[in-house]
Amino acid sequence: MIDWSEEHDSDINRTIAELTGENPDKWYPYGGMKGKDYCNNPADAWPIICNYRINLRFPTDNPGQQWIACITNPSGEWLAYNTCPLRAAMECFLLSQMPMLQGA
After folding, report:
1. Opening angle at CA 39, ends 36 and 45, nearest 5
2. Could you give the C-alpha distances from 31 to 8, 25, 27, 47, 95, in angstroms and in order?
3. Which of residues 87 and 99 earns the better pLDDT score?
């Protein structure tokens, strides 16, 4: 199982693009077109956050200053933590997609 919290933003962006039907091979530097940045750009991340109903919250008693992202659906519950809320949401999204990524 991939530990998404250890992966670079570019790896997460590429995997999300592939899962959502984008072609990351056309992105810069390959095709000269700037790619999506799901981990840092709200315009890229928000459709996924809304579509998958990712809950983002910042607890008041939070010594690590981390956001919590959560997806709960009939298939299960997934949590991810990060100081960047969009990155937490994208890690959570990828965790929820693990069966698809593993070819199940």
Report:
1. 65
2. 21, 7, 5, 24, 29
3. 87
Instruction: Give the residue from 65, 99, 95 showing the smallest Cα distance to 82.
Output: 65
Q: Residue 33 forms beta bridges with which residues?
A: 27
CA distance 44 to 12: 13
- Written as six digits, the tokens of 11 are 């790896």
**Contact criterion met (CB below 8 Å) for 70 and 22:** no
Which one-letter DSSP state was computed for residue 35? -
pTM of the predicted protein model: 0.85
Q: Catalogue the E-assigned strands of the chain.
A: 55-57, 67-73, 76-82
The average confidence (pLDDT) of the chain is 86
**Superfamily covering domain 4-101:** Bacillus phage protein-like (3.30.2120.10)
